[in-house]
Amino acid sequence: MCQKQEMLRILTLIDLTSLESTDSEHSISKLVEKANQGYQNHYPAAVCVYPNFGNFVRKNLKSEMSVAVVAGCFPSGQTLLEAKVAELESVNKTGVEEVDIVINRGLALTEKWDELTTEITAMRKMIPDKKLKVILETGELKSAELIRKAAEISVSCGADFIKTSTGKSAVGATFEAAEVMCDVIKTHAEKTGKKIGFKPSGGIRTVEDARLYYSIVQNILGNEWLTPSLFRIGASSLYDALIIELKHAANK
To answer: Which entry of 100, 133, 160, 209 is annotated as an active-site residue?
Structure first.
């Protein structure tokens, strides 16, 4: 694949994201405008925002792109399970297609796997017809063993995707965490025949970083995973960087 084709494909894997405390309809409308503009008829896979902007984005975003929102007491995951379930129940009534929830890392770090299973399962039940991405916040889990176990539980509880990070912690996506998570996905697919998606996010800003994650997915999971239905990249500055490089290449 030539460099331009690779960059265009990566562009179509991006969840164009804004998750700031200062977000407003004005700022989110600019994000939607950027997504709708795309580049040479190539568009991001989705726009990801807080739940209160979900319907606003769905109303204004081109239909070929999905709307994703964060939930489950994002980004900490620390609240009553009843509150998480209520939030997911509300999100289910909106027009969004995808929901990114975050696990309670305290439960993972203390290896309370049954409680973590209960939480993810309860939230999954609230959005039966929406795509569920489960964020592990791998930078806080630290060890490969905890990342693997959290990924395995998330997949067993019905995650459609597993995702590295919220983008709100000191350590975002890492290549090491990506390899562990992709290995869990591969093992699950071999055992069950079901393909789970992978989404690295948090600190992915350069085209070179994106290429490396692309290569990890390609090498461990294969080319069939290199589509928006099974591979996403959570980033916004990366999107701009890709377009800058594409324009630069076009002007050579």
So the answer is: 100
Q: Do the beta carbons of residue 50 and residue 22 sit within 8 Å? A: no
Q: Is 199 a catalytic residue?
A: yes
Query: How far is residue 124's CA from residue 133's CA, in Å, rounded to a whole number?
Result: 10
* Choice among 149, 160, 163, 209 that is catalytic: 163
**List of E strands, 109-215:** 131-135, 161-163, 197-199
CA 54, 20, 166, 77 torsion: positive or negative? negative
pLDDT of residue 252: 67
Kindly report which listed range (9-18, 108-117, 235-244) carries the lowest average pLDDT score: 235-244
Distance separating alpha carbons of residues 65 and 158, to the nearest angstrom: 23
Read off the amino acid at residue 128: P
Catalytic hit among 84, 149, 199, 209: 199
Catalytic site includes residue 59: no
64 DSSP 8-state letter: T
Q: What ranges make up the beta strands (E) of 64-185?
A: 66-71, 98-102, 131-135, 161-163
* φ and ψ at residue 196, rounded to 5 degrees: -105, 145
Domains of the chain, start order = 3-250 (3.20.20.70)
Kindly list the distances between the CA atom of residue 103 and the CA atoms of 39, 118, 173, in Å, as whole numbers in the listed order: 34, 11, 16
**pTM, to two decimals:** 0.96
Query: pLDDT per residue over 182-241, tens digit each?
Result: 999 999 999 999 999 999 999 898 999 999 999 999 999 999 999 999 999 998 889 999
For the question of residue 183 being annotated catalytic, the response is no
Q: In the structure encoding, which two tokens stand for residue 29, read together?
A: 């409308």
Separation CA 14–CA 24 (nearest Å)? 22
